[in-house]
Q: What sequence folds into this?
């Protein structure tokens, strides 16, 4: 254990460090809408901030029990494998061959043969936030870079990356790991396999969206887990406070103390 003095010295040193990690980038083809190209470019910094936060969480000493990990992957998550995939996101590069809305695609799709990522009409629609697009980018990047999947069999075993699904998915009991589909059931029954699930990384990325970028970046440069967790908690706390201030929300008032209950025989 550190003394308070040594902890303070290390913390000050950590706060002064600069991140050297390369961010997730995208090679975007020249064909397609320039407005759509800008939508991707504007979402990438948001995605990278989320990825840095993910790295900080999975690098913690008790990552398996972190609320963000449990919510995205369940209570028996394979943190080692999650950490590997997040690492691939952190300095990887996706290829987006064009910026036209891909036919038949709503948010995004990844070609398992070449790893190319395309986005659909919902992703590009006017008014969609960079935060929402960043989540889709992380989902698709986990496919392209981490070979994650969307589908699991009826026993909760993931189909292999690029494997064809049964023609009758309902009869075969295919489960889809999307947040609005079978994610909760899969987390309950197959948590140890959820590191294969692409949408779990999108959910994981959304768990601390208000974290201050500079604090998270500094946390990722610190090898000491105690200091890293301190910086991450500080980042999240600052983000939530800032969000409340911007919204004009008033601090929660403590409820009035209830009258003490009488005990004993009546």
A:
């Amino acid at each position: 254990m550190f003394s308070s003095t040594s902890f303070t010295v290390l913390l000050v040193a950590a706060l002064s460090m600069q991140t050297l990690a390369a961010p997730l980038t995208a090679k975007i083809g020249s064909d397609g809408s320039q407005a759509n190209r800008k939508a991707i470019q504007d979402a990438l910094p948001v995605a990278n901030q989320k990825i840095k936060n993910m790295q900080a969480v999975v690098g913690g000493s008790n990552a398996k029990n972190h609320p963000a990990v449990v919510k995205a992957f369940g209570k028996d998550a394979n943190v080692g494998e999650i950490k590997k995939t997040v690492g691939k996101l952190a300095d990887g590069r996706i290829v987006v061959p064009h910026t036209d809305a891909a036919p038949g695609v709503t948010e995004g799709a990844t070609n398992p043969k070449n790893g190319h990522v395309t986005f659909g009409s919902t992703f590009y629609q006017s008014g969609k936030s960079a935060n929402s697009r960043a989540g889709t980018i992380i989902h698709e990047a986990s496919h392209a870079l981490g070979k994650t999947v969307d589908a699991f069999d009826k026993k909760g075993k993931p189909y292999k990356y690029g494997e064809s699904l049964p023609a009758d998915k309902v009869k075969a009991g295919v489960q889809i790991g999307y947040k609005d589909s079978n994610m909760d059931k899969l987390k309950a029954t197959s948590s140890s396999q959820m590191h294969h699930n692409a949408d779990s990384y999108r959910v994981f990325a959304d768990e601390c969206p208000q974290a201050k970028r500079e604090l998270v970046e500094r946390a990722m440069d610190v090898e000491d887990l105690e200091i890293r967790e301190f910086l991450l908690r500080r980042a999240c706390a600052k983000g939530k406070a800032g969000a409340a201030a911007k919204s004009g929300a008033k601090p929660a008032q403590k409820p009035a103390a209830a009258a003490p209950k009488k005990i004993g025989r009546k």
